[in-house]
Task: structure prediction
Amino acid sequence: MPATVFGFVQKPKIEVQRKDLLPVRTGGDLLIPGRGGKLVGSTQIVCTEDSVYCGDTPPLEFSSMQTIPVSEGIGLEEFFRVIQKLTEIYPASVQMSVLPLPLGRRFSVCGNVIRRTCTVVKLATENAIKYVIEIARSDCWSISTLILNPSDQSTRKIEYYIGILLEGLVNKSGHWDQDVLDQCIDLNIEKLRHYGTVGIKIN
Result:
């Protein structure tokens, strides 16, 4: 018997729906670091591979830490505005990623509903490279922002230190663990303190 061959009379049109696309609903305008990064109050489609939606701020090149879309950084909106203002005032190269905090303690979740996140920002100028760690504070938790001044610029080592700092923070139920801070021998660490419910105001 000869073989039977099947074929299409018309070439089919194939539409691919990516699983890593999420609808983002926003209330007001929000500036996100990046040249021309502006989020208008509407429903938009963003890709979870993007470091910031509607912006072009590149992500940090971490190999072992999970990053998530900026849209999931609930409680970090004011900090994003601060970074935007800094980049407008000072000439600096900015990289930014949002990370979920490790699970294991009550502090890992805001209001028993939302997974608490943090953002890590790399600011590079002609004279120095600094890393900033800001913890999401949608519940107005009073915790200091950390500014890391590394003497060793190895990305792998900085990633390691950030990992143990966040683990220590969760294990200390929302407080920076001084013993862990002391272990970061290649970092000069500065703290910027938040006070209660006082937010960051931008003129």
The helical segments are 77-89, 155-171, 178-183. Confidence is low (pLDDT under 50) at residues 18-54, 197-203. The longest strand covers residues 93-100. The two ends are 82 Å apart (CA to CA).
